[in-house]
Write a structure and sequence with these properties.
Blueprint (H helix, E strand, L loop, with lengths): L4 E5 L8 H14 L4 E6 L4 H5 L12 H9 L10 E2 L5 E3 L5 H7 L9 H9 L5 E6 L5 H9 L2 E7 L5 H17 L5 E8 L7 H13 L14 H9 L3 H5 L3 H14 L5
Parallel strand pairs: 1-5, 1-6, 2-4, 2-5, 6-7
Antiparallel strand pairs: 3-4
Helix pairs in contact: 1-11, 3-4, 3-5, 5-6
Bound molecules: adenosine-5'-diphosphate and magnesium ion.
């Protein structure tokens, strides 16, 4: 692949599956033969911890320090990037990222810090996947400004129209003012309970509401205890339970996003 693609995984609601989607999409793409970097853009550091780095606060050079170096116009190349045993790279995060947003108020070009960092390292990657925090704050704006597309995980339990409208409005503003190339990767329904029929209904309603503008993935991610367990042990769903339904769903979504089936 000649050019790398940057995908932001975003929804300002917490607990909708952003981190799980980032991890399994990232490792899925790596299993399909691509060079992948994941960026943990959340001070809660769930992505970092779910990849097995269980004490993120002990890491000394994380996204916070990277952003501080970009502010100082220091180029540090690939410093701080961790290499995971499942074939992906990670820019980790920890609690220090919470302090960065406050500092950004006085920074020139504060929306483009992450883009400038990614521009410096992206030639080494086919895909860069950014796990966003549950907010529409400045670091999420940075992710949207750096991204080619946004993937929006939505939890199947109810139809969060209001929240989605706020997110879509923010994406529209970033696209108009900062990043004209920004596109929707699509809406992905997660945590579908197999004992209810919500999912189909929700997919239909999302199609009616947003289908003209935004793709809604036909594949949805089932609710699965295996998924929860896999993040606790620091493995992807492919490594933890490769024959599970949830692994199959993630493979389908991965193949759809990269347009390739290799697994
Ligand atoms: P977010 O990043 O949006 O906050 P997470 O990916 O961290 O969401 O998921 C929230 C919680 O739900 C985590 O404990 C995670 O292990 C669990 N989870 C995620 N996807 C699934 C799933 N498909 N089935 C069951 N639990 C899930
Ligand atoms: Mg998360």
């Amino acid at each position: 692949m000649a050019k790398s693609k940057v995908i932001a995984v975003s929804n300002q609601k917490g607990g909708v599956g952003k981190t799980s989607v980032t991890l399994n999409l990232g490792i899925g793409l790596a299993r399909n033969g691509y060079k992948v970097l994941m960026i943990d853009n959340d001070y809660q550091a769930n992505l970092t911890a779910s990849l097995g780095y269980t004490s993120p606060d002990e890491l000394e050079y994380t996204l916070c320090e990277i952003i501080e170096d970009v502010i100082e116009e220091k180029e540090n190349g690939k410093k701080g990037i961790l290499t995971h045993s499942e074939g992906v790279d990670l820019v980790p995060s920890n609690i220090t990222l919470a302090t960065v947003e406050l500092k950004l108020i006085e920074v020139i070009g504060r929306e483009t810090l992450l883009r400038r960092y990614i521009d410096g390292i992206k030639s080494g990657y086919d895909y860069i996947i950014i796990d966003c925090s549950p907010s529409l704050g400045m670091m999420t704006v940075n992710a949207l400004t750096a991204a080619d597309s946004v993937l929006i995980p939505v939890q199947a339990a109810y139809l969060p129209v209001k929240g989605l409208q706020d997110l879509i409005r923010t994406i529209g503003k970033v696209k108009r003012q900062l990043n004209p190339k920004l596109d929707f990767e699509g809406i992905l329904i997660t945590m579908v309970n197999s004992r209810t029929n919500y999912a189909r209904e929700i997919i239909e309603r999302l199609h009616e509401e947003y289908g003209e503008k935004i793709k809604v993935f036909n594949t949805f991610i089932p609710r699965s205890v295996k998924q929860e367990e896999s993040s606790v042990v620091g493995k992807s769903i492919y490594k933890y339970a490769n024959s599970s339904k949830v692994a199959k769903a993630y493979k389908e979504v991965t193949d759809e996003i990269c347009g390739k089936e290799v697994f």
